[in-house]
């Protein structure tokens, strides 16, 4: 029998790419996006090319072009029309939509065999298959060899018991076959890019901006309990050959691909990763600036190599954001999640070295991990800032992935993990009808962080984002944290403590608490604002827009100054007051169309700049300078909102530039 095979992989939302490059419109303009961002459906391509290379008679298999865009259902069904087998690659961002398509495929053509694989399919699929009768078979773990064996068996009419890594219904029960061993020689898997699996997609969408998933190795030697890296955690790392990887870079550059996301769990773990980064930079130089960016997940432990890699990428203008992932700084939590971070001293040194090179970094922190308490969570944020993370922290809710150790009932019970399903909606995605909303279980209380403490921790998280990382009070809080010894969480708590003479800050705290309780009950994290570009906004930016639209930011700074000055020593208090005033002037808002010359009795900018690099504070002196408010300036709210979408991941852009005037002595000299 000859089989027609359809492969479906709905790729992730690309809001993180849009935030870096524009695409919701360009920075500072309200122009509609000229093109869409599209990720190549890499997993689907791998399955296709593996079958085409290794099938005993490849002519027995015809592949429809992979389906990867969330088009209307009738369009998708037309693309899959006539397929004997349809395979879905399922992960947290596409499971429900994939199931909806699968149900429609089955309803239209009941004889079509529907197969699901990918990390979202539970290792024990019994209950999952019961809940989803439209799915005939599930494939578990690494997919290529199992999928080949499956389609061979279907084409031959052979029994499925001989196919590895499979689960299916038989005689009223679920039958499971033993897992295939992992593929150790990855070069037996042809590159879908080089073998032409995506040529039809490129031809069909010539105006799209493409993002390439680049897999240089598979496996992760670590075993964090919250993680399910495609069932490849706690495993040996196997690698693809260098010449194939270099050819993929050229392939992408020749097609003017802009963004490469490296799928490796730990880029920098292998010595050759530095060579790969250099090769990517050389490719960009050879191909007129393509690819523009290579985004990698830095390995935790090979610190020196990770630093060199980022230097190479930064020098080539390819840096997609340097992650220094920690997830938690609490030893009990790290032990509970089986994770071993770099030391605080190493983190501090690394931060200062990146800052000295002018390379921004960000750190991942997860709220709701087992073992974490409100106090340890707050202390972790404080330590992070004290150790030099002033650029950005990417805060996540603790998510329950089906095959992660954390999802096991015994583990959940041992740590008192309570979860709610939460709609997965990306920041800056359009408000409006969604045919299907994806859902993810998030932890909203634990044995060490009861529900009320989770709400307080969530409020702290958002307040830290708004007031510190979004730069609303970045200058004084940095000075207080580093020079004044006032932990960031202490200062933020003081600011949000309700008080009659602080109506704006008090209302902000109340708004965040109300939102946190809603999220704890299962509301989506972002907030829909049809009136602000018609998109969903992350809570920090929603709060900012709310403050700005009510013209309350000036009042916020007036309320904050005495609170923060009261936390400082007598000598530091005047500098902190000046830092609040300078911060207020620097915070980029719409309707400012002239630069502003300012004078201070102290040196708030010098104190802030020293705080960022851990240098001794400057001597006390009067200072002057200019806020450059005109590059850019916004005279419409919509234009400023567009700017905010850019700021989401580029936090420094929240502030206008400050040009300090030379000191009088320097002028005299
Ligand atoms: S979080 Fe990263 S380091 Fe930990 S197991 Fe997952 S991939 Fe490996």
Short summary:
With 669 residues, the chain is an alpha/beta fold. The chain is built from 24 helices and 23 strands.
Structural class estimated from helices and strands: alpha/beta
Low-confidence stretches: 18-34
The description of the largest β-sheet is:
7 strands, mixed
Described by the principal axes of the CA atoms, the overall outline is globular
Could you tell me how far the N terminus lies from the C terminus, measured between alpha carbons in angstroms?
89 Å
Mean pLDDT across the residues is: 92
Give the distinct bound molecules: iron/sulfur cluster
Query: How many beta-strand runs?
Result: 23
List strands and helices in order, with pairings.
Layout: E1 3-8, H1 15-21, E2 37-39, H2 42-54, E3 61-63, H3 73-79, E4 85-89, H4 95-108, E5 113-117, H5 126-131, E6 137-139, H6 144-156, E7 166-170, E8 173-176, H7 199-204, E9 209-214, E10 217-218, E11 238-239, H8 242-254, E12 259-262, H9 272-286, E13 293-295, H10 303-315, E14 322-323, H11 331-336, H12 344-356, E15 361-367, H13 374-386, E16 393-397, H14 409-415, E17 418-423, E18 439-445, H15 451-469, H16 474-482, H17 488-496, H18 503-520, E19 527-529, E20 535-537, H19 539-549, H20 553-567, H21 573-586, E21 596-600, H22 604-613, E22 623-627, H23 637-647, E23 658-660, H24 664-668
Parallel strand pairs: 1-3, 1-4, 2-9, 4-5, 5-6, 9-12, 12-13, 14-15, 15-16
Antiparallel strand pairs: 6-7, 7-8, 10-11, 17-18, 19-20, 21-22, 22-23
Iron/sulfur cluster binds next to loops.
């Amino acid at each position: 029998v000859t089989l027609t095979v359809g492969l479906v992989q709905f790729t992730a939302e690309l809001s993180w790419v849009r935030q870096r490059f524009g695409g919701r419109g360009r920075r500072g303009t309200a122009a509609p996006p000229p093109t869409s961002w599209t990720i190549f459906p890499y997993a689907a391509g791998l399955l296709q090319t593996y079958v085409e290379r290794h099938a005993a008679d490849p002519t027995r298999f015809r592949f429809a072009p992979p389906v990867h865009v969330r088009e209307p259902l009738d369009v998708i069904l037309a693309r899959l029309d006539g397929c004997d087998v349809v395979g879905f690659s399922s992960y947290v961002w596409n499971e429900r939509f994939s199931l909806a398509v699968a149900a429609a495929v089955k309803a239209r053509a009941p004889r079509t065999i529907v197969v699901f694989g990918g990390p979202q399919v539970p290792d024990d699929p019994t209950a999952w298959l019961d809940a989803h009768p439209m799915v005939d078979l599930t494939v578990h773990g690494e997919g290529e060899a199992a999928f080949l064996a499956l389609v061979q068996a279907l084409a031959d009419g052979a029994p499925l018991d001989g196919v590895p890594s499979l689960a299916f219904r038989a005689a009223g029960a679920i039958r499971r076959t033993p897992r295939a061993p992992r593929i150790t020689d990855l070069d037996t898997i042809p590159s879908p890019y080089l073998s032409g699996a995506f040529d039809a997609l490129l031809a069909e969408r010539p105006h799209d901006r493409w993002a390439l998933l680049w897999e240089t190795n598979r496996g992760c030697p670590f075993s964090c309990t919250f993680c399910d890296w495609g069932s490849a955690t706690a495993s040996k790392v196997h690698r693809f050959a260098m010449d194939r990887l270099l050819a993929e870079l050229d392939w992408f550059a020749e097609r003017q691909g802009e963004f490469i996301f490296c799928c490796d769990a730990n880029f920098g773990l292998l010595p050759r990763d530095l060579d790969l980064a250099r090769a990517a930079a050389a490719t960009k130089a050879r191909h007129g600036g393509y690819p523009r960016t290579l985004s990698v997940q830095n390995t935790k432990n090979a610190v020196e190599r990770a630093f060199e890699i980022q230097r190479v990428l930064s020098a080539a203008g390819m840096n997609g954001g340097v992650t220094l992932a920690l997830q938690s700084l609490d030893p009990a939590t790290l032990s509970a999640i089986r994770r071993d971070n770099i030391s605080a001293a190493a983190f501090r040194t690394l931060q200062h070295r990146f800052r000295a090179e002018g390379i921004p970094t960000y750190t991942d922190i997860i709220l709701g991990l087992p073992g974490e308490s409100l106090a340890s969570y707050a202390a972790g944020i404080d330590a992070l800032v004290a150790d030099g993370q002033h650029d950005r922290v990417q805060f996540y809710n603790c998510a329950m992935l089906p095959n992660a150790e954390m999802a096991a009932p015994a583990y959940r019970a041992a740590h008192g993990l309570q979860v709610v399903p939460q709609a997965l909606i990306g920041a800056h995605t359009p408000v409006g009808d969604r045919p299907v909303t994806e859902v993810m279980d998030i932890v909203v209380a634990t044995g060490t962080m009861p529900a009320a403490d989770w709400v307080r921790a969530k409020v702290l998280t958002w307040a830290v984002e708004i007031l510190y990382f979004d730069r609303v009070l970045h200058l004084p809080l940095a000075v207080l944290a580093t020079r004044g010894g006032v932990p960031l969480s202490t200062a933020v708590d003081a600011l949000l403590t309700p008080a009659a003479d602080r109506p704006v800050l008090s209302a902000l705290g109340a708004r965040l608490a109300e939102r946190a309780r809603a999220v704890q009950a299962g509301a989506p994290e972002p907030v829909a604002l049809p009136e602000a570009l018609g998109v969903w906004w992350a809570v920090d930016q929603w709060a900012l827009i709310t403050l700005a639209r009510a013209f309350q930011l000036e009042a916020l700074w007036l309320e904050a100054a005495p609170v923060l000055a009261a936390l400082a020593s007598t000598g530091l208090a005047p500098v902190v007051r000046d830092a609040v005033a300078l911060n207020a002037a620097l915070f980029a808002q719409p309707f400012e169309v002239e630069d502003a010359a300012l004078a201070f009795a102290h040196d708030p900018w010098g104190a802030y700049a020293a705080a960022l690099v851990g240098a001794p504070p400057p001597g006390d002196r009067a200072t002057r300078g200019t806020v450059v408010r005109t590059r850019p300036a916004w005279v419409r709210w919509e234009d400023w909102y567009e700017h905010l979408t850019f700021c989401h991941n580029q936090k420094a852009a929240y502030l206008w530039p400050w040009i300090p005037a030379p000191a009088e002595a320097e002028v005299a000299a």
